[in-house]
Amino acid sequence: RRSCIYARNIWSGIMPKRDNGTLRRKVNLRLRALRELEVPVILETHAGFGRLWHYCYQAYDGVALEFDPVRISSVARQRPTWACYQVDCIPALRAGIGTHLPINFVDIDPYGSPWPVVDALFQGQRVWPEQLVVVVNDGLRQKAQRGGAWDTADLEGAVQRYGNESVYARYLEIAQGMFADKAAQAEYRLSRWTGYYCGYGQQMTHYAAVLTRDGGVK
């Protein structure tokens, strides 16, 4: 697959030095997750300027969402065969955006908490594949490190269960449980999961989930 070419580019040093940490690991996680599917069809909820597409998604069809008009203009020029939308991804996902394609791989890469996006994805009305792969870049652990989990709506349940001071240390475990619960909204079960902390002070959390579902339509 062409994605292997871009993986080799990363390790050969073509990527700028400032991206050698978090971006490199994000790319590696996505390349491994793509191998879970015979024919991946991609939905990017936060396309940015298209760096992940460059290293991971050029070989595939897909849908790109981005709120910033400058960024989505760049993305649309970068990938003329994709459907590219300047939208707020949360209401767009709830409305079932991208249903003209058999989406089976979702890339969620917001700045900060991913959980409103995850909820919107699984609350959307769409034809669901029997297997869905989701990769997430989660920045919410930074808030928990500062003792702010108690003041974060997305972590209310975790604080009640584990206590405010434990959320930071157990965030990956908490994220796995939260993701499984939210995927169940679309009748998915979590069949495989991987994740890790990274970035400055280990404040970022990357994870990937393989979900399975019986039947196709919610």
Describe the structure.
The chain is an alpha/beta fold and 218 residues long. Helices cover 37% and strands 21% of the residues. The chain has 9 helices and 7 strands; from the N terminus they run ααβαβαβαβαβαααββ. It has helices spanning 2-11, 22-34, 51-57, 69-78, 89-94, 115-123, 141-145, 156-162, 171-183; strands at 41-44, 61-66, 83-86, 105-108, 131-138, 189-198, 204-212. Helix 1 packs antiparallel against helix 2.
TL;DR?
The protein is an alpha/beta fold and 218 residues long. It is built from nine helices and seven strands.
If strands are numbered along the chain, what order do they take across the biggest sheet?
3-2-1-4-5-7-6
Shape: globular
Report the total helices.
9
The amount of helix comes to: 25-40%
Key terms:
218 residues; alpha/beta; 7 strands
Secondary structure elements and pairings:
Blueprint: H1 2-11, H2 22-34, E1 41-44, H3 51-57, E2 61-66, H4 69-78, E3 83-86, H5 89-94, E4 105-108, H6 115-123, E5 131-138, H7 141-145, H8 156-162, H9 171-183, E6 189-198, E7 204-212
Helix pairs in contact: 1-2, 1-3
